[in-house]
């Protein structure tokens, strides 16, 4: 029986949010392998995707997956670093006894915070194939996992082919002084099993290959796309024997560098050796963010934009982080959120990568503070006071936020309102921390924990100052 894998990962504090996330996280799903047969460690990674937030990609041409260092985008899966482009496209195929099948028309594409999956259902050939792509936080490369499953009751022998179209040239983020594009050359090293592409005039390199568990041979695929004028193409073939209902996972590692061949190969080796640690680190980070600063509002698209902003940038720190533009009128803030929510998830990686020095990145980071501002949440960290002035758009009758960390205080806030009544319920872990609740002056009858109280009016608002671990306020006009 092959090794199964279950890692408990505890992600400790980082400067933004992890100080407060003491979570032991199962990185892979607990599954019963006795009834399904042995699973490889790589295959179980596919199962763990079910625990990650996801969205369906409607248009493969607009698809993007990346961070500030690397971007995978478009239907042809162009691969670009911040400084140089590596591939203009790459493709995969499988060959059966009767035909060659290009894996270029997935049944569906699903996007996750640091990964994506393409699903291919080849029922007539008795195969089910999934392509999993994921990026590490800081490595200049990408990992691909191709799961090939024989869904027939008899064994099969298939060939898996992978083809890369190189186009080593400056990224569009670089100006003309970075270098002049020249023709690419590719060399295959039979000893290491690594393909290396180099620009003739520059130290720009792309390297790719598979794991040492597979024997491969250079072979061009019939599914190869057209290369650019100065680019080239090269690929490999792996023979896969599959018993009935057996699944095999073939990894492909791709790395690049504008600092020389050694750096590119070193990154390739890091990707290959760090396959599971890279996954664990990404998985633990996203898992810790899912239930932290969890907002529930009537508009699903804006709520989704808030969640994915957390995955991209980490948590906005109330009372510490400052984002420009919040001084504008409330209607503008609400409209800005609605505009960002449209196709936010599908576009965010590409937008951020291609606008690293542009205000649009700041705008995307504003999604969290804008939404918190509409809930009326602010804080004075030094004085240990949280300010809450409900400021919901008229379309929203209720909203809440759970597990919001303000310094070392975890707060839950729920707000509901209608024409004549507004109510708030607040819990906090630091019961000595101050709460300053401000309500419009027209709400003249105020009850705190069911008892009517008097309060002062200033600048058109009634202010209730309290401490404690639980506060409930009801106010009527």
From TrEMBL:
It comes from the Bacteria. The lineage of its organism: Bacteria, Pseudomonadati, Bacteroidota, Cytophagia, Cytophagales. This is Lipoprotein.
């Amino acid at each position: 029986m092959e090794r199964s894998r279950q890692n408990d990962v505890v992600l400790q504090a980082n400067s933004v949010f992890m100080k407060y996330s003491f979570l032991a996280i199962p990185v892979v799903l607990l599954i019963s392998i006795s009834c399904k047969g042995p699973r490889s460690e790589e295959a179980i990674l596919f199962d763990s995707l079910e625990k990650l937030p996801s969205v369906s990609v409607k248009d493969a041409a607009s698809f993007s997956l990346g961070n500030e260092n690397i971007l995978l985008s478009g239907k042809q899966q162009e691969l670009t670093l911040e400084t140089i482009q590596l591939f203009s496209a790459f493709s995969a195929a499988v060959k059966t006894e009767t035909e060659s099948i290009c894996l270029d028309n997935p049944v569906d594409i699903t996007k996750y915070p640091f990964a994506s999956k393409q699903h291919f259902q080849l029922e007539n050939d008795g195969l089910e194939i999934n392509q999993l792509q994921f990026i590490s936080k800081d490595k200049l490369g990408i990992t691909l996992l191709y799961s090939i499953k024989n869904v027939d009751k008899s064994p099969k022998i298939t060939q898996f082919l992978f083809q890369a179209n190189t186009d080593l040239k400056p990224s569009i983020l670089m100006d003309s002084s970075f270098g002049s594009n020249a023709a690419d050359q590719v060399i295959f090293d039979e000893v290491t099993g690594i393909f290396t592409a180099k620009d003739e005039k520059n130290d720009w390199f792309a390297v790719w290959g598979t794991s040492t568990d597979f024997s491969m041979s250079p072979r061009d695929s019939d599914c190869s796309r057209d290369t650019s004028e100065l680019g080239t193409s090269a690929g490999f073939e792996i023979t896969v024997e599959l018993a009935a209902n057996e699944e095999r996972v073939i990894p492909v590692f791709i790395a690049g560098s504008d600092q020389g061949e050694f750096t590119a190969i070193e990154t390739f080796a890091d990707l290959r050796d760090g396959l599971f640690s890279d996954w664990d680190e990404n998985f633990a980070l996203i898992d810790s963010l899912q239930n932290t600063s969890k907002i529930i509002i009537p508009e699903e698209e804006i709520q989704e934009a808030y969640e994915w902003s957390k995955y991209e940038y980490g948590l906005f720190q109330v009372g510490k982080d400052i984002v420009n533009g919040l001084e504008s009128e409330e209607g503008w803030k609400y409209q800005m959120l609605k505009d960002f929510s449209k196709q936010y998830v599908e576009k965010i990686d590409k937008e951020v990568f291609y606008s690293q020095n542009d205000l649009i990145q700041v705008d995307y980071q504003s999604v969290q503070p804008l939404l918190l501002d509409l809930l009326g949440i602010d804080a004075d960290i030094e004085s240990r006071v949280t300010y809450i002035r409900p400021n919901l758009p008229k379309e929203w009758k209720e909203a809440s936020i759970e597990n919001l960390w303000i310094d070392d205080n975890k707060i839950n806030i729920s707000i509901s309102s209608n024409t004549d009544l507004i109510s708030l319920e607040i819990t906090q872990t630091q019961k000595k921390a101050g709460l300053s609740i401000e309500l419009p002056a027209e709400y003249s009858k105020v009850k705190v924990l069911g008892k009517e109280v008097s309060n002062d009016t200033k600048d058109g608002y009634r202010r209730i100052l309290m401490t404690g671990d639980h506060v409930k306020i009801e106010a009527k006009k």
